[in-house]
Amino acid sequence: MHETTAKPKVAVHKFSSCDGCQLAFLDMGEDLLTLSAMVDIVHFAEAGMLDADATVDVAFVEGSLNTRHDLKRIQAIRRNSRFLVTIGACATAGGLQALRNFTDADAWHSAVYATPEYLDSLATASPIKSAVHVDLELWGCPVNTRQVTGAVRALLSGVTPAVEQDKVCMECKRQQAVCVMVAKGTPCMGPVTRTGCGALCPRFERGCYACYGPAENPNTDSLSHWFEGLGLLPEQLREQYHGITSQTEPFTAAGNRYRK
């Protein structure tokens, strides 16, 4: 009789997030059947599989770190995983919840909660890589099915996954989208943001929100001069950089130049 080779094990873990990146798995359609034939998904709470302490080949992690309990969990996940892959803006760059890093979080806690001393909250919201080694980052808000399936295939084949490095501006040209900054004077982060979304926002005449994080060699000084020419005030300039991916060094630094 032929021995059955065990399929690689995969886990999907959630921290502070909206669950949008986990939906990239559930929205796969037929590709999900292909994935399930390739791997054994042993933990994925949103899909009903529960085994958070399982030892796996690939652990996908969504969300940012906000509590001491989060720190303990992510250390355990790292120990139990051959590869750890962060998915989405929250896990890779802190996400929207990291905006509290620019304010007095304790003051907010006192204003909202009657007994804030019971909160298990860290001083800042942080990306996963601030606490453990991350083997691969999948950027996006949210990530897409193509990224997830590509990462699984590459990692399990011993191949370094391809990572997009082109800027959103290049994708706009490929999609034949009109530049919203030139044509309409709309502030857009496309010149400093990596592509991966298909230039979704500019194709619908909206500026890029930098969901996929900073591109290779982002020239934030030049873009800031453009924004100033469009009439943006210092507070508006800061908000361009301190958004979904605020906890990435190029955007943190660029935004801090306009803080009061």
UniProtKB/TrEMBL annotation:
- GO MF terms on file? 3 iron, 4 sulfur cluster binding; oxidoreductase activity
Keywords for the protein's UniProt record, in alphabetical order = 3Fe-4S, Iron, Iron-sulfur, Metal-binding, Oxidoreductase
What are the residue boundaries of the NADH:ubiquinone oxidoreductase-like 20kDa subunit domain, all occurrences included? 18-155
Output this protein's name.
Sulfhydrogenase subunit delta
Cited SUPFAM superfamilies? HydA/Nqo6-like
Cofactor(s) of this protein = [3Fe-4S] cluster
Quote the Pfam families the UniProt record gives. Oxidored_q6
Supply the PANTHER family for this chain. Answer: COENZYME F420-REDUCING HYDROGENASE, GAMMA SUBUNIT, HYDROGENASE SMALL SUBUNIT
